[in-house]
Design brief:
This protein is α+β, with helices and mostly antiparallel strands. Helices cover about 40% and strands about 15% of the residues.
């Protein structure tokens, strides 16, 4: 018979993994991508909330315009009051009030069948908190808007 084969036993050595420059750069890129995605999602959520607030304010303005002694100033005040708690939307919103396509200033006297339209627009930055504005540099010139019509 042949002699049994011997298998040498080597001790298991556990060394900590070596993390080089490339590993650090990959991790940094991953964290940067995750941070950018989080900022983009936050900005999108605040933009949707701002658009919804503008829509509610436009509908409140139409309700104000239906009152017998409504003026363009009272309609504007209704919009500004409705947007008061939404960062800078109350201050930076542009309000356009039209009756049958004509711009209305002063007293509002809707006639039978006249279509009243309220259009609100504001820069997207007005819907964002200040700390998020500095992180979203790509919003230059972008507006959020809402429109409400009565028939």
């Amino acid at each position: 018979m042949d002699a049994p084969a011997t298998i040498p036993i080597r001790p298991l050595v556990c060394e900590p993994p070596v993390r080089g420059v490339s590993w650090v750069m990959r991790q940094a890129a991953t964290f940067a991508a995750l941070a950018l995605a989080a900022v983009t999602l936050l900005e999108f959520g605040y933009r949707l909330a701002g658009e919804r607030a503008l829509s509610r304010a436009a509908h409140a303005a139409l309700a104000e315009a239906a009152l017998p002694r409504a003026t363009s100033q009272s309609v504007e005040q209704a919009v500004r009051t409705r947007l008061a708690g939404h960062y800078d939307l109350g201050r930076d919103t542009t309000i356009t009030f039209q009756g049958n396509g004509w711009l209305i200033r002063g007293p509002i006297r809707p006639r039978a069948g006249e279509q009243l339209t309220i259009a609100l627009s504001a820069p997207v930055d007005a819907a964002l908190p200040r700390w998020l504005r500095s992180a979203t540099f790509w919003n230059e010139g972008v507006k959020v808007s809402a429109r409400a019509e009565s028939r």
